[in-house]
Amino acid sequence: MTQHVFPAALEPAPGTSGSEIVRLASVTRRFGPTLALDDVSLAVAEGEILAIIGRSGAGKSTLIRCLNGLERPDAGHILIEGADIAALAERELQPLRRRVGMIFQHFNLLANRTVRENVALPLKIAGEGRRARDARAAELLELVGLSAKADSYPAQLSGGQKQRVGIARALAARPKILLSDEATSALDPETTQQILELLRRINRELGLTVVLITHEMEVVRTVADRVAVIEAGRIVEEGPVWRVFANPRQALTRSLLATVRPQLPRHIAERLSPVPGRAVVLRADVAGPGAGRLAADAEAALGRPVELLHGGIDHIQGQAVGSLFLEIGARNEGEVERITSVLAARGAEVEVLGHV
Asked: Is residue 194 pLDDT above 70, yes or no?
């Protein structure tokens, strides 16, 4: 099987092998006049968790259906473990599909089968014997913490328990890749956190590669190594989660992240003027070891007070990531330019919001 080297530009996640297990190359998919995927190229490193985010209708679900072979691209290539699945006949796809597990938003469990039978179903379809199926189901139910529910039916389970069964079923055939399509969006926040912790543990203990589709930015921040942003069928931004959260380049990304990144409080924003006054109010986005020192360093360099109005420092993937709203004395545009230069020299992305 051909081994593809993970491109340096895509920066493998810490703790992964760096070799790619999935590659999409110039993938296009149309539904009549609608272009669902538009020349998408994307690589996934073995052992990483990649989150794909975007608004409804952006192409997320089409992309994941192409990855498991349920949709065929109109153009381009989809390589999984070196095999181009876009070129395979349906019969040839079956063994490969067993290498790709899938968990769903609404669980998709069979109501008339027990938890054990739901988990073992992929193995039954593959022709494995009863004893082997039951042994594998017991192993997986222990992994997801549901051994005591083996003989229960889905109607007797909570939403979080149903999703754990769905995860166990997706792992039954020992896949190398796990696809998750909005798997936590039907769950409450506490249960979501438990499912994310389970996915991260499975990723680490089994070396499983995970591609998850989500619109929940907290999910991305909690569990993903890397994030790709899709808009109108195109990947418009991607990178390590900490870097994208620290400095989103696209307007769409900034909009999607608005719920998890600090925003200037309304009572401050309402008193801002576009005309220079006694001080400038700006946003400084910063990441890395010096993030927490930015205000103090800027104050020392400028020789004037720097007031922190709002914001703070978060830690994502072990990196300090800060969004700081600062008020600094400045009576003309020349002083504003000097302030922004001092902050930029210390690695900050600076946006002037107004004057007071």
From this structure: yes
